[in-house]
Amino acid sequence: MTSVEERCRALRRLVERLRSPELAGDIVRRIREEVKAAKRALGVEVVRIMHVCGTHEHTITYYGLRSLLPESIELIAGPGCPVCIVPAREVDEAVKLALEEEVAVLTYGDMYRVPGSEVSLAQARARGAKVMVVYGFREAVRLAAKLRRDFVFFAVGFETTQPTVAAYLARGGLPKNLKLLVSYRLTVPAVRYVLNQPDIPLNGVIAPGHVSTITGAGAWSFLPREYGIPAAVAGFEPIDVLIAVLGILKMISRGRPSIFNEYSRAVTWEGNVLARKMVYEVFQVVDKDWRGIGVLPESGLKLKDAYSSYDARLEYNIKVSSWVDTRPGCRCPDVILGRAKPTDCPMFMKACTPEHPLGACMVSSEGTCSIWARYGGYSRLKVDEHGDLMGGAPSTRGAR
Ligand code: SF4
User: Fold this and answer.
1) What is the DSSP letter of 283?
2) Residue 253 within any structural domain of the chain
3) Same domain, 322 and 339
4) 130 C-alpha to center of ligand 1: Å?
5) Cα(132) to centroid of ligand 1, in Å?
6) What's the CA-to-centroid distance between 51 and ligand 1, angstroms?
7) How far is the CA of 369 from the centre of ligand 1 (A)?
8) Whose CA is nearest to atom 8 of ligand 1?
């Protein structure tokens, strides 16, 4: 049995290795070689690799990984921000509840400032609405159990956040004064949707590590099977992402698209079978609209009839008949789908900043516009023509 100190030391050694500039330089040199063969195999000038996780975009931008890579590799941010894709209609529902009903709406901090058609939950609170920020669903349950008032939890998120809520419901452990405004979305159908867009050509996908702990690496096997595209499930340290890129290039150059599980320290092929079982016991898969994008088939969840007594929409009969997903000129839907970069939006860091966000992508810490605004969208790391690092490792203490 190892002591806590020994485990902490091992963890620290792992993190140091996964942030090692020397190791990064070695992998980048191999990437520079491998990309030549990959380009030849594809017959393209630029190999386009999409990731679908806000945390990956954070790692890539914060550590300046794009600047380490040759220009013939484009790393594209895809639909990876679970807050950015919540339609204004659902924010409006939460606002309506908080303003018009005798309930307190509980929400994650990231969701708090996401704009609705007119106001965000934060702005609604300034107008007297009852809105409280919680760190997680357990806190919502604790609050409801402790206080007598009625609560509604705004249940947003991808596959990682759903099992906790499902577990409480399946075990009958929810206080009666806590209802759910379900706004869950699924990542895998969103990636399929992107791949079906002819104007978003992709050569590889970095699959999200967190989501894959639940879905399993096998959930991405449709990419090589149906689209002939390789995918790598990756962790969230810079070395994880670089190894994933190298793995994808190798699969391309060898003409053998498959699934490479780079994040095997957390992800298995099957994923968390028990968590998924609970989710599908409580929720059913339905078509859902994504903010500014439209309805994606089988891309969301709703409560099954057996759990409808927890459904805030039924309990309070909330109706929102019209809504506005994006302000004029905001390119958030294109940024979410990887059609545009934040810098393609004329309002980026002019009319739209993290302090005065106009679109959801500028609000959430996982939104691509917000990440580029905070960390520059370009490198603080540079390599010379041989792939050697110049100027040392990046600071780990925050933004520029
Ligand atoms: Fe929308 Fe602001 Fe991003 Fe432009 S910079 S796409 S306005 S969120």
Assistant:
1) E
2) yes
3) no
4) 28
5) 26
6) 19
7) 6
8) 359
Please check whether residue 282 lies inside any domain of the structure: yes
- β pairing state of 283-290 and 294-303: antiparallel
Could you tell me if residue 394 is inside a domain?
no
The range of the structural domain enclosing residue 270 comes to 19-328
Are residue 228 and residue 343 in the same domain, yes or no? no
Give the residues surrounding ligand 1 with Cβ less than 6 Å away.
330-332, 335, 342, 345, 347-348, 352, 358-359, 361-362, 369
- Please report whether residue 392 resides in a domain: no
pLDDT tens, residue order, the chain (400 aa): 578 888 889 888 888 888 888 999 999 999 999 999 999 999 999 999 999 999 999 999 999 999 999 999 999 999 999 999 999 999 999 999 999 998 999 999 989 999 999 999 999 999 999 999 999 999 999 999 999 899 999 999 999 999 999 999 999 889 999 999 999 999 999 999 999 999 999 999 999 999 999 999 999 999 999 999 999 999 999 999 999 999 999 999 999 999 999 999 999 999 999 999 999 999 999 999 999 999 999 999 999 999 999 999 999 999 999 999 999 999 999 999 999 999 999 999 999 999 999 999 999 889 999 999 998 754 444 455 555 544 443 333 332 2
Q: Is the domain of 247 the same as that of 361?
A: no
> Of the candidates 295, 376, 301, which has an alpha carbon nearest to the alpha carbon of residue 87?
295
- 109 contact partners, CB below 8 Å, separation of at least 6: 133, 135
Task: Report the sign of the C-alpha dihedral through residues 362, 368, 374, 376, in that order.
Answer: negative
- For atom 5 of ligand 1, the residue with the nearest CA is 348
Q: In terms of domains, do 203 and 65 share one?
A: yes
371 and 254 in a common domain: no
Q: How many domains does the chain have?
A: 2
Pocket test for ligand 1, best of 325, 327, 332 (most atoms within 8 A of CB): 332
Same domain, 318 and 340: no
Distance 356 CA to ligand 1 centre (A): 11
Residue in 112, 81, 126, 92 with CA at minimum distance from that of residue 325:
92
Which of ligand 1's atoms lies nearest the C-alpha of 327? 7
Instruction: Give CA separation, 376 vs 179, 242, 269, 368, in Å.
Output: 40, 20, 35, 11
The CATH number for 129's domain is 3.40.50.11750
